[in-house]
Amino acid sequence: MGIFKRLRDLTVASINDLLDRAEDPVKMLNQFLRDMEQDIIEAEAAVAKQIAVEKKFKMQYEEAEELVSKREAQALKALEQGNEDLARRALQDKKDHQTRFEEMQKQYTIAKENADRLRAQLNEMKNEYGKMKNKRDLLIARAEAAKAQKSINRAMSGFNSDSASKGFDRMSEKVLQMEAEAQASQSLRDSSRSLDDELSKLGSNEIEDELAALKAKLQDKKAE
């Protein structure tokens, strides 16, 4: 598997396709991010190695460059002292270091280009990872909402509104019957009380009794 395989995969399969295939989208999304994290760790290690190679070649070409300048100065000093053979050998060594300098400089350029490219890819992976984390949060919210809707739909499918409505109608009729019976009972009681009142009035009339008493008193007075 290539170091940047996950980055390439992102251009092939979208997160929405992953959701369609996943039995548990939340777990799959978290696993997907963990895979990306692992790829980023591997990529960081690869970039670190390439940077080390870049620095190595840079150090080598700088050392060779320094020796080229040093040997030229030494050759000149040897000539000044009349030692042509030493100057010749210094120039030969300068040539060897010049060749090495050119080769190391070339390798350094290639290594730096590779390191820069890997650094750019690593940054792209990290940016993509950040985007995926944000998308993960949104998709998890959507998944939770879908689960809630599914639960409600499942509950509603077992909710027999017709049966409940019929049951309420029966209970309503029963309550009406109870109210009617209560009203009938009250009417009978009221009727019974009315009859008792009338009968009690027949047996007692205070005004008439008092009037009769006055008449008797008047009659007694006349008899005197």
From TrEMBL:
Residues 190-200 have a biased composition (Basic and acidic residues). The keyword Transferase does not apply. InterPro entries: PspA_VIPP1. Keywords: Coiled coil. The keyword Coiled coil applies. Residues 157-201 are annotated as: Disordered. It holds the Pfam family PspA_IM30. Residues 26-142 form a coiled coil. Belongs to the PspA/Vipp/IM30 family. This is PspA/IM30 family protein. It comes from Paenibacillus residui.
